[in-house]
UniProtKB/TrEMBL annotation:
Organism: Luedemannella helvata
Domain of life: Bacteria
The name this protein goes by in its record: Uncharacterized protein
Length: 130
């Protein structure tokens, strides 16, 4: 049993066409050529993977020797609440009713804004000339 998956090495979905494999090979090979001799082992893997895809699988739906990731692509699609997307949880209030505190804050903000407006207007008024 082989532990290498040509589709994962090339970065393409299981059962992709030869054309898709060629495009993926060219993209990855271009990056490996820049590495020079250090990229040679990975280039051999890419070539092997391209050859495996080229040979093809006669019945992809029955092929069990090549693992597939993900086995079910819809498994990663979130459609509502669940383990990976829990519903929002409403927390209880810790400090009691906030209406009085909110009113006090509004009054303080209004007084501060009124003070700002009075000072602004006062800076615009000039004393009359004698």
């Amino acid at each position: 049993m082989t532990y290498r998956n040509p589709y994962i090495i090339l970065g393409i979905p299981f059962g992709s066409s030869r054309e898709d494999a060629n495009v993926a090979f060219a993209r990855k090979a271009r990056a490996l050529r820049r590495l020079g001799p250090a990229g040679r082992p990975q280039m051999l893997d890419l070539t092997w993977a391209l050859n495996q895809v080229d040979e093809g699988i006669s019945h992809p739906e029955a092929a069990m020797e090549i693992y597939r990731i993900p086995a079910d692509p819809d498994a990663f699609t979130v459609t509502g609440n669940g383990v990976l997307a829990p519903p929002a949880e409403t927390l209880p209030r810790r400090y009691g009713p906030g209406d009085a505190a909110l009113d006090a804050l509004r009054r303080a903000a209004a007084i501060e804004y009124l003070r700002y407006l009075v000072l602004l207007r006062a800076s615009q008024i000039h004393a009359p000339a004698p």
